[in-house]
Amino acid sequence: MAELLQLAALLVLLTVAAGLLRILRGPGAADRVMAAQLLGTGGIAVLVLLAAATATPALLDAALTLALLAAFAAVALVVAAPGRASRR
Amino acid sequence: MSLLLDGFTLVAVFAGILFFVAGTAGLLRFPDTSSRLHALTKADHLGLGLIVLGLLPQAGGVLPALKLLVIWALALLAGATVGPLIARLAREEDAPP
Amino acid sequence: MTGLLADLAIGAAILALAAGMVAARSAFTATAFFIAYGLLLGLAWVRLGAVDIALTEAAIGAGLSGVLLLTAAARLAARPVATERAPGPLLTALIALCCAAVAVAIGAAILSLPEPTPSLAAEVAANLPATALGNPVAGVLMSYRALDTLLESAVVVLAVVGVWSLTPPGGWGGFPGPFHLRVESGPLALLARLLPPIGIVIALHILWVGKDAPGGKFQAAAILAAMWLLAWMAGLATPPRIASRRLRFAVSAGAGLFLAIGVAGALAEGAFLAYPAGWTKALVLAVEFALTASIAVALALLVMGPPEEEDRA
């Protein structure tokens, strides 16, 4: 069971890491924000999977923190995005 | 019983991974920003949701299970509010002043 | 097997993100890379079994530092400074050479560490009960190396002073941060109203478990600061003017209390920062709570930046 959950964590990690190509390609700021947000969600998924696989409950707290901060970072990326007209 | 629960966990977790794979594929392959946003929210909401659902029987207590649910709720809240913000940003980028 | 693959994947992704960050043409893209980079670094710390550092990296590395860089980039874009000449090919080569030399030196230092690595971990674990704390990291930070923690908390105060000293003429004493933030409506305002109450509860949880499990003041303070900044970005919370005495007290109170307890230890027990027997836990908790509040305010003020001129209001 633990092995399979670790495999699941690895699969999620590989998947969202592939999604990072979108930061590189863009083209717009919106696409880059999306890739960062996907990585945030994927990171949360990896942490909860590892918390169960390795029986480390502290990783759930790390996932909670990440969930809060990922939302905050995504909002900040949108607010500070260069193409955002309403900021001026 | 435990075998049944383990089976449930694996089915739900790997279904969640399917959504992550689909969401990433959409993010990389879809032609325009709006479609890509559509793909992303599936990974966010359903991918993480199914993984959390699958892990609930393994949480080993009410408090860790509650934490898992809160984590998903936070991701839902973030996705639901950041999605429209990204869409607005994409529209503003498409139509330069 | 999965462990090795995961390590390889994380390592490769971190290197790719670092390369992307350096090569990115716009500051915004580079910052997006930086946030992703901090997140993966957090996962690397998890793989190394250092959950405490992973928590800090997720909160401060990916979250707050990324947003700090974003606001800095936005400020630079709003008022372009005269950019210096781009370095010539000779200077570029020299910079590359120096960076490579530093990287090789660090790599050589790590590879030349003796086997087994010298460690005080066993002694820390053996003496942990004396500190009344269950988390070895908290024991080291608040007891064995309390002096380092005291200096760190003073550095945060000094950083705020340093940022405020960059206030342009005419802005001194005003509201921190740029003026052009307006009251948002719609999704951003909704999130800025819903998330902070949840965030405050989670921050207190992280702070409270920090004495027995991974967590603690810096992580909790980073979450609190992020919640305040979220309300600030949505235009819902106006920070006090930097001339406000209460704000200045809030920034320095934590380090001040820590210092006072340290001096009291010198008077009562004969050693600076010694905790009187039986009082350890109460004093450590008092310092942790005061420092959390002060660091949270300080981190938020660092991200907001110095005030701008009054006439831009």
UniProtKB/TrEMBL annotation, chain A:
Keyword vocabulary terms for this entry:
Cell membrane, Membrane, Transmembrane, Transmembrane helix, Transport
Classify the main location: membrane
Bilayer topology reads: Multi-pass membrane protein
What Gene Ontology terms describe where this protein resides (cellular component)? plasma membrane
Q: Which InterPro entries match?
A: MrpF/PhaF-like
GO molecular function terms attached to this record: sodium:proton antiporter activity
Q: Where are the transmembrane segments?
A: 6-24, 36-56, 62-81
Of which family is this protein a member?
Belongs to the CPA3 antiporters (TC 2.A.63) subunit F family.
PANTHER family linked: NA(+)/H(+) ANTIPORTER SUBUNIT F1, NA(+)_H(+) ANTIPORTER SUBUNIT F
The protein here is known as Multiple resistance and pH regulation protein F
Origin organism is Neoroseomonas eburnea
Lineage, opening ranks: Bacteria, Pseudomonadati, Pseudomonadota, Alphaproteobacteria, Acetobacterales
Automatic annotation (TrEMBL), chain B:
Membrane-spanning residues where?
12-31, 43-63, 69-90
A GO MF term:
sodium:proton antiporter activity
What residue range is the signal peptide?
A: none
Quote the InterPro entries the UniProt record gives.
Answer: PhaG_MnhG_YufB (IPR005133)
One Pfam family for this entry, by name? Answer: PhaG_MnhG_YufB
Could you name the domain of life of the organism this protein comes from? Bacteria
Instruction: Write the record's keywords in alphabetical order, separated by commas.
Output: Membrane, Transmembrane, Transmembrane helix
Kindly provide the name given to this protein in its UniProt entry: Na+/H+ antiporter subunit G
UniProtKB/TrEMBL annotation, chain C:
Q: Name one Pfam family in it.
A: MbhD
Membrane topology recorded in Swiss-Prot or TrEMBL: Multi-pass membrane protein
- In what residue span(s) does the MrpA C-terminal/MbhD domain sit? 13-76
Keywords in alphabetical order: Cell membrane, Membrane, Transmembrane, Transmembrane helix
List localization entries: Cell membrane
Q: Which residues form the Na+/H+ antiporter MnhB subunit-related protein domain?
A: 188-303
| Main localization category | membrane
Q: Name one GO cellular component term.
A: plasma membrane
Give the transmembrane region(s). Answer: 28-46, 58-78, 90-113, 125-144, 150-167, 188-208, 220-237, 249-276, 282-304
Q: Which family does it belong to?
A: Belongs to the CPA3 antiporters (TC 2.A.63) subunit B family.
The name under which this protein is listed is DUF4040 domain-containing protein
- Species of origin: Neoroseomonas eburnea
Which classification does the entry list for the species?
Bacteria, Pseudomonadati, Pseudomonadota, Alphaproteobacteria, Acetobacterales
